């Protein structure tokens, strides 16, 4: 038999490499040194790295704001050329000032207008074929997929492919919003920066979300809504380490927008009065109706995608076919072409009558669903707003017709419809509410918005599993988080979950004694790991049953001589999350638990099974139905006579 090779560095002895890692060998001289103990430390909410990421996020906010302005400029130039044969509306002394999106609705092309969107769709298809097929779609699902499956690594070419393809698709009359491509471009910029620097995957995710949120904030002047959108659809968490940089990025982007274009709301509407009680109920009803529509819209988009997938031609041609149909509809109703932010203005200001609302809403829905389902590059937010706003206004007109005493405001009805369809189709409830408020600055609309969007959110959650943002990647096998809850393991301390009735071995015991005791088969000898303590009761380590029975160790050796690596342990006050992370980092299955006041004194052992068992309370609270207060009279057994 060979003796342990004490010349090997800690962690490299045979007992470590040959024996099981289910237990923790620890060094005999523990003392009070926690540095040697490899113990997780209680930390602040963030580390000093947050300063670096925040500075990078601020730079990203500025970069995304300029990228957003450049994309809007490209869309306007292409629109001016394609529909009016000039660029003077965008460039030169007669160019319009401020933030605007040129509308194709005033063109005089007649039936030729049908071909213009097809040209843009063909260019988008060509760029997808020989550039990257990832440019197809509306941007947010693709960013979500990279976060969930690829550690937020977006290919560098996406920083220019996506905005250029979108500029052609939208500038030639595609019925899309510009916000999706801008969100995608900002996210690609953040990911690119994260790939150029030495950062973690989590930090790269934060940079991606910061760039994406800054892009949206720069377009709509909605910093809070953009921050909430990043939380609900990209970050899948609400932590200071991510919240702070993203918030700074959105503030920077909106600050640049204000400095460039002023601080006016993007969708100005007349001031509205606080709605009465019956009107408020009506807005909730509008939200519920639009909630059903959001489900149908989502299913329609992916139904059209499935139909295009059955076409016997290469997918590169699909965007041109979809755009051709959109062009035909645009010939019938020119207001369906392009971004259409002016249509949103008209909706919230109550300028559309019932006939226009019905025809415009229906034709915009058909045009957008077919064009987006063809796999081109464009956003969803603005089209959804027009479809939902039209439906909300129509329902509001109906309520006023049948119940005129309620006095439903048409502007609020349209606004609730706009926000509710986004809340239902994306299930980004808070984003929808805050976005509608920030883009109109109407505080009286907040309560109707909350009621209507919540109703739509409820209908959507009951009727469909995935959303318009997640269906595409869910079909590829990507599971997207749908609920964001506090980590239960972070709420439970190690002291409440560990096993305290622990049988320990003395460091001076010989292997002969221990092996004889193990062979007797006593109940306390059935464990897979045993803590080792010295004569003073201090923890020396934990040895596995396998290492104690390993024939390479001579029976005359003491238990203490087998302990070779530094201690790995936790205090009673640490959380189970910290303990679980510590187990993963150290590649062990159990931890020594020591006292909070005396870190050398053994308290218990924490195993992987103990961590799983801690979830029993969480499951019980979620599933067990019980009544704690019982009303009514209780019958008591009759007392003996």
From TrEMBL:
GO terms for cellular component: chloride channel complex. One of its GO terms (molecular function) is chloride channel activity. Signal peptide: none annotated. Gene3D superfamilies: CBS-domain, Clc chloride channel. It is found in: Membrane. Residues 498-559, 563-621 form the CBS domain. It comes from the Bacteria. It is a multi-pass membrane protein. Keywords: CBS domain, Chloride, Chloride channel, Ion channel, Ion transport, Membrane, Transmembrane, Transmembrane helix, Transport. SUPFAM superfamilies: CBS-domain pair, Clc chloride channel. Its main location: membrane. The keyword Signal does not apply. The chain crosses the membrane at residues 50-75, 109-128, 206-231, 243-264, 276-295, 315-332, 352-372, 384-403, 415-437, 443-463. It holds the Pfam family CBS. This is Chloride channel.
């Amino acid at each position: 038999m060979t003796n342990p090779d004490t010349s090997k560095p800690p962690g490299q002895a045979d007992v470590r490499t040959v024996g099981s890692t289910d237990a923790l060998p620890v060094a005999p001289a523990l003392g009070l040194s926690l540095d040697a103990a490899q113990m997780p430390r209680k930390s602040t909410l963030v580390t000093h790295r947050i300063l670096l990421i925040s500075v990078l996020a601020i730079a990203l906010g500025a970069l995304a704001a300029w990228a957003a302005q450049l994309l809007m400029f490209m869309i306007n130039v292409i629109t001016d050329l394609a529909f009016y044969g000039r660029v003077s509306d965008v460039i030169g002394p007669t160019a319009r000032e401020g933030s605007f999106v040129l509308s194709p609705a005033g063109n005089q092309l007649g039936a030729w207008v049908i071909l213009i969107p097809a040209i843009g769709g063909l260019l988008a298809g060509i760029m997808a074929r020989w550039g990257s097929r990832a440019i197809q779609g509306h941007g947010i699902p693709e960013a979500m997929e990279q976060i969930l499956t690829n550690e937020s690594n977006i290919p560098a070419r996406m920083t220019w492919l996506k905005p250029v393809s979108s500029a052609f698709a939208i500038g030639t009359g595609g019925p899309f919003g510009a916000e999706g491509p801008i969100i995608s471009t900002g996210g690609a910029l953040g990911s690119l920066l994260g790939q150029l620097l030495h950062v973690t995957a989590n930090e790269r995710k934060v940079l991606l979300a910061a760039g994406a949120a800054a892009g949206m904030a720069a377009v709509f002047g909605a910093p809070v809504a953009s921050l909430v959108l990043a939380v609900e659809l990209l970050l899948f968490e609400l932590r200071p380490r991510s919240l702070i940089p993203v918030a700074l990025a959105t503030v920077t982007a909106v600050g640049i927008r204000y400095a460039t274009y002023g601080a006016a709301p993007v969708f100005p509407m007349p001031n509205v009065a606080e709605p009465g009680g019956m009107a408020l109920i009506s807005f909730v009803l509008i939200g519920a109706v639009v909630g059903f529509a959001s489900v149908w819209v989502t299913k329609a988009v992916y139904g059209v995608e499935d139909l295009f997938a059955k076409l016997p031609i290469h997918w590169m041609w699909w965007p041109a076919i979809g755009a051709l149909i959109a062009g035909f509809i645009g010939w019938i109703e020119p207001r369906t072409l392009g971004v259409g932010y002016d249509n949103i203005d008209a909706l919230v200001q109550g300028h559309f009558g019932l006939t226009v609302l019905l025809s415009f809403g229906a034709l915009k829905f058909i045009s957008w669903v077919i064009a987006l389902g063809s796999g081109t590059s464009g956003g969803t937010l603005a089209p959804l707003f027009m479809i939902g706003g039209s439906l909300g206004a129509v329902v509001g007109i109906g309520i006023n017709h049948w119940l005129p005493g309620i006095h439903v405001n048409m502007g609020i009805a349209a606004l609730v419809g706009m926000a509710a369809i986004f809340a239902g189709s994306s299930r980004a409830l808070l984003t929808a509410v805050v976005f509608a408020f920030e883009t109109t600055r109407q505080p009286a609309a907040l309560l109707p918005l909350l009621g209507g969007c919540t109703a739509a959110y409820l209908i959507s959650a009951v009727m469909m599993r995935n959303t318009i943002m997640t269906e595409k990647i869910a079909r590829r096998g990507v599971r997207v988080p749908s609920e964001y809850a506090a980590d239960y393991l972070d709420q439970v301390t190690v002291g409440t979950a560990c096993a305290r009735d622990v049988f320990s071995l003395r460091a001076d015991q010989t292997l002969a004694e221990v092996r004889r005791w193990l062979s007797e088969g006593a109940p306390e000898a059935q464990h897979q790991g045993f803590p080792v303590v010295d004569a003073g009761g201090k923890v020396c380590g934990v040895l596995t049953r396998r290492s104690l029975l390993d024939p390479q160790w001579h029976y005359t050796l003491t238990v203490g001589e087998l302990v070779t690596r530094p201690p790995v342990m936790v205090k009673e006050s640490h959380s189970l999350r910290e303990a679980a992370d510590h187990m993963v980092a150290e590649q062990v299955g159990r931890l020594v638990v020591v006292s909070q006041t005396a870190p050398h004194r053994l308290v218990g052992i924490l195993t992987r099974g103990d961590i799983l068992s801690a979830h029993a309370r969480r499951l019980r609270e979620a599933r067990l139905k019980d009544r704690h207060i019982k009303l009514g009279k209780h019958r008591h057994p009759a007392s003996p006579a």
